[in-house]
Amino acid sequence: MLFKNPVTVASGTFGHSERYYDLEEVKRLGAIVPKTVTFHPQTGNPPVRIVETASGMINAIGIENPGIDAFIADKLPALKSIRVPLIISISGKDEEQWVGIIEKLNTQEGITAVELNLSCPNLKNKVLVAQDAQATMQLVKQMKALSKFPIIAKLSPNVTDIAQIAQAAEDGGADAVSLVNTFQAMAIDVKTRRSRIGNITGGLSGPAIRPIAVYMVRRVAASVKIPVIGMGGIMNAQDALEFLIAGATMVAVGTANFINPRAPLDVLEGIEAFMKENKIDDINEIIGSLKV
Amino acid sequence: MKKIQNKYKIITNESLCPKYWRMVFDAPQIAAEVKPGQFVHIRTDEEGLQPFFRRPFSVFRAQKYVEIFYAVVGRGTKLLSLKKKGDSIDVLGPLGTPFIYPPESTKQVVMIAGGIGVAPMLILSDVLKKKKCALFLLYGARSREFVYPMTEFKDNGVKVHVATEDGSVGLKGRISILFDKIDWTVKDTFIYTCGPNPMLKAVQTFAGKQGIAGQVACEAIMACGLGACQGCSIETTSGYKTVCHDGPAFNLDEVIFH
After folding, report:
1. How far is B213 from chain A (nearest CA, A)?
2. B223 contacts in chain A (CB < 8 Å)
3. Domain edge (last residue) among B42, B67, B95
4. Same domain as B231, residue B139
5. Are B201 and B84 members of one domain?
6. By residue range, what is the domain housing residue B44?
7. B233/A contact by beta carbon, under 8 A
8. Where among B95, B125, B159 does a domain terminate?
9. Splitting chain A (292 residues) into consecutive groups of 10 residues, what average pLDDT does each group show?
10. In the CATH hierarchy, which top-level class contains the domain A7-45+62-184+207-285?
11. What is the domain partition of chain A in residue ranges?
12. pTM value?
């Protein structure tokens, strides 16, 4: 996979492009990752779905999406027309669904890669696929064999050793790994003694998680040979550069989109300015350049 | 970004009564485009990240300048209240689905607002005063501190009735005691309402019994304001809908209040 620049958006954070974004600007992004698509339509979790926390947020949206058929029929054409590389994030509840989604995507053109959202149930072990190295390896292997598009494994940080899971994805044949997804979290309303999230627990994102995400990207980049897409609380170019220096070949801007819809472009322009200032012509001079 | 994200200069920022403030800023683009019921999404802490999210505010009025009406309730609105004339603010907007206007045959429009829920009603009356229907505002608040003079409404020909929970202004009691002030037998009455959810539920129930149609402006904790994160969804008769993109304005009988 080749992209014209290393900046993309994280799944689930970018939407309604035609109404709110200047498409000429969106075209400058390295890639777009729309919200995760599941086999069947999902209505999402009951409100309250988000809560603001210190330098971040907890969300439990519940992957509200129209399902793969409606996605292909209604959303994909408009996304393709933006003419930016598309990375389609998918998630299945069981093997049949995963296979079904991939087969449906295989009928399409104009997709650059498929990202497997592994933060999904692993029915055999009662943990997430992303929390089980063996399950990760097997699922990636199966998807890689079926898919006509490159496969990216999106990893969960809710594991003891994320490098081990990344290696499992690499062993399964993944073309790249992306990390991190959100951290399991909760916030409690002291007055009512209830969770402030309808789903009780949710996923923490935003700058609050960035130092942990940078650490994990560093660990994974040192452990696998495939490219690493880094994300976790990137608000500006400085943040993105941390991930690149830690070894990410590409970065995704997620939660920052909610505060500053122009954040991905600010990050891109900031990296360009940094390179110019430091007389760097090739982004590869930054990637993995951590000095120890 | 389409030109919907911008920095605008503050013209005035003052308290209108002990609990409520009005900020006026120079945003010709928003002023030209905004429709009643739409909102602006303001970054109250541009330097730091406290609060992290933007804060949504109904547009109170849009003439030469854009006005918002707000209560100081937390750190975000506190920071907003500290802004001075000449300072700039980072605004995203106008956003959301506006109110639909009443049918041409409408004889009277009753706006029912609780507390800060009065915010989208002034800009609405600015538009509706040009139509040939009688305008009423039923306003409910906790006490005198939450009631501002409302001269702009009166200037628009709106007949205003106020109730406060402690009786310090107008009738004593909740807003429902003002329902008697309206002749609901008038054919083609239309309701607009905004306020706390228990009040909206009471208005919805009342309107349902009377067979009166209307619109409601809803509130929710919001992150993006663009319909992207789907965080502000509420329950409606046709499933979850986002307050920021599908709303804030919904049909009164469509929202399921809990």
Report:
1. 26
2. 50, 52, 57, 59, 255, 258
3. B95
4. yes
5. no
6. 5-95
7. yes
8. B95
9. 84 76 84 94 95 96 95 94 94 95 97 93 77 96 98 97 98 98 97 96 96 98 98 97 98 95 94 97 96 94
10. alpha beta
11. 7-45+62-184+207-285
12. 0.94
ipTM of the prediction: 0.92
Given a contact cutoff of 8 angstroms between Cβ atoms, the answer to whether B91 and B30 are in contact is yes
Question: Residues of chain A whose C-beta is under 8 A from some C-beta in B?
Answer: 12-16, 19-22, 25, 43-44, 46-57, 59, 61, 64, 206-207, 235, 255, 257-262, 265
Of B51, B239, B240, the CB nearest to A52: B51
Q: Which residue type occupies B154?
A: K
CA–CA gap between residue A37 and residue A90 (Å, rounded): 5
Q: List b or e across B125-161, with b for residues whose CB sees 16 or more CB atoms inside 10 angstroms.
A: bbebeeeebbbbbbbbbeebebbbebeebeebebebb
Residues of B in contact with A57 (CB under 8 A): 52-53, 223, 231
Nearest to B231 among A21, A59, A260 (CB): A59
Contacting residues of B for A61, CB less than 8 Å apart: 229-231, 233
Strands (E), B81-238: 88-95, 108-114, 134-141, 158-164, 171-172, 189-194, 213-217, 233-236
Q: Is residue B197 one of the residues assigned to a domain?
A: yes
